[in-house]
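Re: [help] complex structure
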Amino acid sequence: MIDSHLDFARTGVVGFGTMGAGIAQVVARSGRAVTVLDLDAGRLETGLAAVRTFLDGGVARGKLTENERDAVLGRITGTTDVHDLAGAELVIEAATENSGTKREILARVTAEAGDSAVIVTNTSALSVTDLATALPRPERFAGLHFFNPAQLMRVVEVVRALQTDESVVERLVSLVESFGKDAVVVKDRPGFLVNHLVMPYLNDVIQEYDDGLATAEDIDTALKLGLGYKLGPLELLDLIGLDVHDHATTSAYEATRDPAYASPPLLRQMVAAGHHGTKNGRGFRAGQVPA
Amino acid sequence: MNQRSTVAVLGAGTMGSGIATVMSRAGYRTLFYDVDEANLRRGVAGVNGFFDRSVSLGKLDREQALEAKTKLVGVTELREIADADVIVEAVFENLALKKEIFALLDEIISTSALIHTNTSTLSVTAIASGSRHPERVVGTHYCNPAPLMKLVEVANGRHTADWAHKATVGFLGSLGKTTVVTKDRPGFIVNRFLIPWENRCIAALESGLGTTESIDAAVTGALGHPMGPFRLLDIVGLDIHQQVATRLYEQLRDPRFFPPPMVERMVAAGDLGRKTGRGFYTYDDTRLFGS
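Output below.
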């Protein structure tokens, strides 16, 4: 059942990868109808399967009933046809982190959704202000930055581009709150807020590890036991994906020339060698035998 | 070799009292030394108070608490620690003072005793240079509050013997602590990464990237930290943060370690955090750790 009284009752998501699937689930869980566009039919299948698996886990742990699971799944429709986004009040773009690709998708999607729709990007590495220039109505565009896994992380950054209308920011804050999450309104700066803080820390850890301060396991153990972090920095990097972190921190470096963002040599080498972290079982901790 | 039964803890401040609590609770006869009798009385009262609270919280039964209390012996003469098998130095964070005490220990302690120094920002090698037995000196950095925090960072000085290192790790295991091994570098692991992280969060606040509340919410919600940077700084104390950060900066000459100007203003204004009722937040209750 769809609650048509909600703002953004009909929402589109572009891209059914990890982030797109997580976001689609969060939006559908809040009572909204979600149409997920992915040009790759195979990804539509794996995306829907990922949502189902996640919800099944929730049912098994008693977090939601089978009926609720079925209702959430019933609100999500996958499509490979961009015309199916016609009439969407909100479109959340969660495609590949590539400026050219995103600009092309955003222009196409805006043409379908119509003038009154709000369009947002889930980018973590690109300038929202720059992407806004690809749209005919940049004032109706903003960033909506979810953290992985989107279903679990309590915070969503609402990124105000230079062009973004204040009423759009307000509606997005209410939207995030309707998910049961905390909205943090941030400036359009490289890394926004959270990554601005955390990327230099992660780079620093990688360099000190490479310089032999301690083992990867001991660095993670020290910060977990000493500071109560759920994950140590090197476990976190494995989970984020070393390629993803490398891309994000390099983008921030290019935008700022701040050496705190410079990708450490060991990270670049690991990415070059195909060590991408948890997703392929090779990383700082992934695939390593504990000492 | 592993028949160590008597421990001496030097210095009855916060860390010394916490460490003496850990030792007596683990069943070691604990010679608790402070040159100042009033300090020592406060320290002993602190340890006994901890055991009384543990009883009222149901963490310890009366017999266990009594047993632990009888293990604790306060002394104000250094020669009274002569038969200690392990000496844990936890006096003020002052290199000259620590070296002076180590020189005095040369004349007093047995030739097989392990000598531990609980420093957070000084070099283990530099402290050990005050002793004629640097091969038996090991850095053991406890976290505050020591009775509750499981982590101890272990750092060898340049001349620390392998047997002394191994005996130290075994001894800390007998206390129920988890050890990590780190190089003798400024800040070891936890402070090495915590201080620049906190400084960057303060700088972000000062430059208007977010508010105290929004940055704390973003960090806890997106990174799974148990509390945000400003809640943590208020507990640590802004004066303590300033001291630790400045000491690390003096050794590393890396501007990421230098406290942002806002810290100096807060310290000058007496806004030191929870203990003064005002820091980044304001408090009605100035007690720490619910004690």
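The mean pLDDT of chain A is 95.
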